[in-house]
Amino acid sequence: MSKLIVCDHPVLQQILGGLRDKSTPPPRFRDLMESAGLIIGLEVLNGIKTQPGQVTTPLKAASVRNLGQPIALVAILRAGLGMMPGLQRLLPEARVGHIGLYRNEETLNPVRYYVRLPAAIEKSFVLLLDPMLATGGSAAEAVRILKTDGAKDIRLLTILATRTGIRRVHREHPDVQILTAAVDPVLNNIGYIVPGLGDAGDRLFTL
Ligand code: PRP
Ligand code: URA
Questions:
Q1: How many domains, in total, are found in the chain?
Q2: What range defines the domain where residue 38 resides?
Q3: Which end of the chain is flanked by fewer CB atoms within 10 Å, N or C?
Q4: Which of 8, 21, 175, 202 is catalytic?
Q5: Residue 190 has what pLDDT?
Q6: 60 CA distance to ligand 1 centroid (A)?
């Protein structure tokens, strides 16, 4: 399994352009992030195991393939919520959880304020959603929380990542595959990804 997948799909790249554009208003920004979640979700699910099944069409019995593992979608609040609707459209039966973290503005360390995880997470293929992987502190902490609850099979779905963030997550959790639409070159001195797209939570939820 490749530890980092940069999804180069042209439609995803066009969506990323809209997300980066500072003139994109919040309703459009939300739509774009939903679509980005869906495309990255398709990419991560490409390798999932399937199980044979059977249905009856109006004409005849037909063999089908079903996903072979329960799926859990876990959003890091707030910005991970932006990717959730796209994933839920693909996987309407997936169980959903939330991890509330915010970064202390001075230390940039994540502060935990809410955790609610789905049942049977130890048997699930867990997709952890957060569009921004900056220092990597929040994602590394969220993975730690998931593992403490028994999760074993975890993928991190982001939209923008930095090398620093990728290195940190892989140093602390070498088993976690990371997917992203792009790797940006710089993390500035207040922990923002540059050129990035700004504060994802504010752009989603501030009118
Ligand atoms: C943002 C973002 C990530 C985190 C990434 O959340 O959504 O969770 O920063 O930064 P890191 O990789 O350096 O930890 P923020 O703390 O701003 O909270 P919010 O989504 O509620 O605004
Ligand atoms: N969180 C954001 O929302 N944006 C960044 O650039 C970094 C962290």
A1: 1
A2: 4-48+67-205
A3: C
A4: 202
A5: 94
A6: 51
Residue 61 within any structural domain of the chain: no
- Three-state SS string over 116-182 comes to ECCCCHHHCEEEEECCEECCCHHHHHHHHHHHHCCCCEEEEECCEEEHHHHHHHHHHCCCCEEEECE
Closest CA to 187 of 157, 166, 158, 156: 166
Tell me the per-residue pLDDT of 155-206, one tens digit each, with 9 for 90 and over.
Answer: 999 999 999 999 999 999 999 999 999 999 999 999 999 999 999 999 999 8
Asked if the structure places residue 151 within a domain, the reply is yes
Residues flanking ligand 2, CB < 6 Å: 79, 132, 134, 191-193, 196, 199-201
In this structure, the chain runs to a length of 207
Report if pTM > 0.90: yes
